[in-house]
Amino acid sequence: MELTSLLAQNFRNLTKLEVTFGQKVNAFVGKNAQGKTNILEAIALLAFGKSLRNNSEKSLVKLGESFFRVEGAGRNEKEEKIKIEIASTLAKKVFKLNGKPITQTRLVGNFPIVSFSPEDLNLLLLSPSLRRRYLDILLSQTSSKYLLALNSYNKALKNRNALLARIFEQLAKREELDFWDGELARHGSLIGKIRAEFLEFATKPLAKNFEKIAGEPKKLSFRIANFRGEEITEKKYLENLTKLREKDLRYQNTNYGIHRADLVFELDGELLSENGSRGEIRSSILALKFVELEFIESVLGEKPVLLLDDVFSELDESRQKSLMGLIANHQTFLTTTKLSHLDSIKEKDVWGVKSGELEKLR
Fold first, then answer.
1. Distance from first CA to last CA of the chain, Å, rounded?
2. Are 337 and 29 in contact (CB under 8 A)?
3. All residues at 6 or more sequence positions from 208 whose CB lies less than 8 Å from its CB, including other chains
4. What was the pLDDT predicted at 159?
5. Of the candidates 8, 149, 176, 342, which lies 20 to 30 Å from 362 by C-alpha distance?
6. What fold does the segment set 127-301 form as a domain?
7. Is the backbone of residue 268 left (phi > 0), alpha (psi -120 to 50) or beta?
């Protein structure tokens, strides 16, 4: 996949940005808070139809304006042209693919990306919800079934928890849980299965990539904890929900399911989050990014576009060299505060960014 041009109007601090990109590395250089990250966020919007920064729709619209518009044109591995348009007011959001209106769900997967930011370096150390979100973002791009199941699961979970509260207040009957239990079991078992398939694909390359990046003969592995999705059929899922029904009613919350799973990383069998060094954790994240790129290409037959948001400053020299391995074979969009970070990149287009405005530097 290649993004050839971008238009972003009234998106954050970008009044009307129109730019054509090169096939290799496209770098945005400037001081902090000038709009570099906003450009990458606009590109990511083409992939998902929403911001990955967990911001409200209102915050995406430039202050004083009533709408934003983002358009991207590109071509896929088959040299077929693709155009994605997203327009949003506070009341309505419209998505178009090659001029035809589509839903946000149908949009996902048409423009695959892999993003890497300093926040990702803490992925292994913070809340399990971040690691579940990581899986959801990745697998939603490669499987429409996963995304549809995830949306249905989240809706069912919200309704079931609301029903648990109503039953606790004696405003509803226990039997009403049966329908939502069935919905959770149907969609949750599918989500668990697809997550397990990704883990099976990633096991060997993850270990291989880590050893190469870290330069040490330790084995990196990961597994799903708290929910063994790969072993759970729809029938078994339903049985486990039934077993915990009394606890759920007591706490007015659903205590079993894929929404409580965690992606646990281990190095030579020990928890990386507890025993890994800062360097080992960074090497693990880099290894994971290599796997993401490989997985998406193997499933979709498309090389994803790579987005790197100010990660050079967070990596030492050896890991910066490893990062160059990610860049070598993919169209890349990156931000940095220092031009010197780009010295080792031969084929590149560079823009300076100041107050949301671009100036071509080379």
1. 23
2. yes
3. none
4. 98
5. 8
6. Glutathione S-transferase Yfyf (Class Pi); Chain A, domain 2 (1.20.1050)
7. left
CA distance 331 to 326: 10
- Structurally, at CATH architecture level, domain 1-112+305-362 sits in 3-Layer(aba) Sandwich (3.40)
Q: Average the pLDDT over 84-100 and give the result.
A: 94
Question: Residue ranges of the domains in the chain?
Answer: 1-112+305-362, 127-301
Yes or no: say if 129 and 116 are a contact pair by the CB < 8 Å rule: no
Predicted confidence (pLDDT) per residue in 241-288, tens digit: 999 999 999 999 999 999 999 999 999 999 999 999 989 999 999 999
Q: Which two tokens stand for residue 208?
A: 């291989």
- Of 84, 44, 114, nearest to 296 by C-alpha is 114
* Nearest of 348, 349, 279 to residue 320 by alpha carbon: 279
Answer yes or no: is pLDDT of 227 > 80.
Answer: no
Cα separation, 32 vs 43, whole angstroms? 19
Question: Contact, 7 vs 18, CB < 8 A?
Answer: yes
Q: What proportion of the chain, given as a percentage, has pLDDT over 90?
A: 80
Quick check: 75 and 110 in contact, CB under 8 A?
A: no
CA distance 124 to 283: 12
**Chain segment 304-330, per-residue pLDDT in tens:** 999 999 988 888 888 888 888 788 889
Q: What letter does residue 169 receive in the DSSP assignment?
A: T
C-beta of residue 293 within 8 angstroms of C-beta of residue 303: yes
CA-wise closest residue to 73 among 127, 139, 7: 7
